[in-house]
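To whoever is on call:

I kicked off a structure prediction for a single chain this morning and the downstream step that reads the tokens threw a length-mismatch warning. I double-checked the sequence; it's 117 residues and nothing unusual in it as far as I can see. Pasting both halves so you can look.
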Amino acid sequence: MVQKVVATPEALVWIDKLREQHGPLMFHQSGGCCDGSAPMCYPQGEFRVGDQDVLLGEIGGCPFYIGAAQYEYWKHTQLIIDVVVGRGSGFSVEAPHGVRFLTRSRCFTEEEGQGGV
């Protein structure tokens, strides 16, 4: 079965750097106000996951959650978490480093199907 969320090599390097600084991490992607639907990286336990959040998988050993409403929009795609130069939200731990995580995506092929989480 194809993974619903993966990370680019560059994103994995940043995840490792941030884990060294902050300890265990987790990601959450919502459709909320702060940076739109950008993936947000938090020290594990600093963001409360709710009943409506879906665990998509792990990237770099970190759990990756998405809000249920966003999942409905993205369920036919594989999320590809990348990192780019630029300022993102002040809530995500990479923000002070002048980079931000970014979601790219690709549609699942017919063979891969949409599948459930």
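Update from on-call: the warning came from a stale cache, not from the record. Cleared it. Sanity check on the structure: The domain at 5-107 is CATH 2.60.300 (Hypothetical Protein Aq_1857; Chain: A;).
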